[in-house]
């Protein structure tokens, strides 16, 4: 086994740490939504508006968190496809994404919409018969809210499924071998910005806003698809991942420049449509630069395993599904209290985090039915997967004579 191939088969622990950190940032981002001036389910009576410190933080975070999560999902697909046929891959995506999506739409999201519109309904039971009234949210009641991310990932899985043969065949190796000399140069992975920026130049005039509604969000969808495939190609090529790690300081400087451009350039034009286009173009550059910076520094400093990583990596997806309705419930009551804004934010954050963890630990994690509904492997399947992983790793150890590599291989 070549060294590059062996490296590509090793578990990249920093990818797990990044995923965990990004979803925690989503949690705190949604806390911030209560106190900034953007529309959301529950709002504090006093909010911070345009060009406040909170506005700058939220605008910066909104530019790159979800794109990097999409990129990391593409990286995860590279590992998932090593031992799965197309049918197995789609079956796994159905269990991992579609089932939690449907469960969330009918169980988790209605809590959020009901509390937002509580003045119109006496109880949650009164809300359910009118869940489909008025069409889509916000005019109507039906939505998938924070679950849009899951819906988009499932859609991308369906789109790429006819091309899985290419994605794990000799054609991919030939493609990446041609790409590697370019992408390995200083800031070479910026080549991905060419299709990204072209997609936004062509589609943003027709789809100027991110709707998260799938059917009329083609500028965002194509953008996410490109990032997903970029994650797949980059992580499948260890030399490129290593180049990103070595160039992390250059990407950090690029990020600082791009963030400055994102905040300054749109305000310099008087033509509104042009300002919106510049906003999305600079946000795309920020997203890519931040993503490369995060990958580089994470690969350098946190590519390590621990028991906490294993626990957190399994918990973080159910945490994502649960966190927003729990935040909305906590905020519904706490924003009415006579407290300063900072105390409200702290209480909502602490209580929401604790209750989300408690719900996961006691109501989701122990029960196979709930594990299925939240996209987790059942206990027996998880144990079997770990056993297969151990046996496969042990076989490779015997062949290579390198026992120190035992813990580095992905489970099947």
SSE string: HHHHHHHHHHHHHHHHH
User: Roughly what percent helix?
Assistant: 55-70%
Distance between termini? 19 Å
> Tell me about the biggest sheet?
none
Fold topology:
Layout: H1 3-9, H2 13-33, H3 53-80, H4 86-116, H5 124-127, H6 148-160, H7 164-167, H8 170-183, H9 193-203, H10 218-235, H11 238-246, H12 248-264, H13 272-301, H14 307-334, H15 341-364, H16 368-373, H17 379-400
Can you give a write-up of this model?
This protein is globular. 33% of the residues are buried. The protein is mainly alpha-helical and 412 residues long. The chain has two domains: 11-378, no CATH class; 379-412, no CATH class. The two termini are 19 Å apart. It has 17 helices and no strands. It has helices at residues 3-9, 13-33, 53-80, 86-116, 124-127, 148-160, 164-167, 170-183, 193-203, 218-235, 238-246, 248-264, 272-301, 307-334, 341-364, 368-373, 379-400.
Attribute tags:
17 helices; globular; 412 residues; disordered N terminus; single chain; mainly alpha; 2 domains; disordered C terminus
């Amino acid at each position: 086994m070549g060294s590059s191939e062996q490296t590509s088969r090793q578990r990249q622990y920093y990818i797990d740490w990044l995923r965990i950190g990004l979803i925690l940032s989503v949690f705190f981002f949604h806390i911030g939504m209560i106190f900034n001036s953007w529309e959301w389910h529950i709002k504090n009576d006093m909010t911070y508006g345009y060009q406040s410190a909170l506005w700058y933080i939220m605008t910066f975070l909104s530019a790159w968190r979800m794109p990097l999560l999409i990129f990391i999902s593409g990286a995860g697909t590279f590992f998932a496809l090593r031992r799965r046929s197309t049918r197995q891959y789609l079956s796994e995506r159905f269990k991992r994404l579609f089932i939690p999506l449907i469960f969330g739409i009918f169980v988790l999201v209605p809590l959020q919409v009901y509390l937002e519109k509580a003045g119109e309904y006496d109880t949650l039971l009164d809300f359910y018969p009118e869940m489909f009234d008025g069409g889509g949210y916000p005019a109507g009641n039906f939505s998938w809210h924070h679950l849009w991310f899951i819906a988009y990932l499932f859609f991308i899985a369906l789109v790429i499924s006819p091309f899985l043969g290419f994605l794990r065949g000799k054609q991919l190796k030939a493609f990446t071998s041609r790409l590697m000399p370019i992408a390995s140069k200083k800031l070479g992975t910026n080549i991905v910005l060419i299709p990204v920026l072209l997609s936004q130049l062509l589609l943003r005039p027709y789809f100027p806003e991110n709707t998260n509604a799938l059917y009329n969000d083609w500028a965002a969808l194509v953008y996410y698809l490109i990032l997903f495939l970029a994650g797949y190609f980059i992580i499948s090529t260890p030399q490129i991942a290593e180049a990103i790690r070595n160039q992390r300081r250059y990407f950090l400087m690029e990020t600082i420049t791009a963030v400055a451009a994102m905040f300054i350039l749109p305000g310099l034009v008087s033509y509104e449509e042009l300002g919106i286009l510049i906003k999305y173009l600079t946000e795309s550059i920020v997203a890519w630069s931040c993503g490369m910076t995060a990958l580089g520094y994470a690969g350098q400093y946190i590519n390590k395993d621990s028991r906490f990583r294993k626990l957190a990596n399994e918990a973080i997806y159910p945490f994502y599904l649960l966190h927003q309705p729990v935040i909305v419930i906590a905020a519904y009551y706490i924003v009415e209290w006579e407290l300063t804004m900072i105390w409200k934010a702290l209480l909502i954050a602490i209580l929401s985090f604790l209750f989300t963890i408690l719900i996961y630990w006691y109501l989701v994690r122990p029960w196979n039915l709930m594990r299925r509904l939240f996209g987790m492997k059942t206990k027996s399947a998880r144990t079997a997967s770990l056993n297969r992983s151990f046996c496969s790793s042990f076989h490779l150890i015997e062949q290579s004579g390198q026992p120190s590599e035992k813990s580095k291989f992905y489970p099947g």
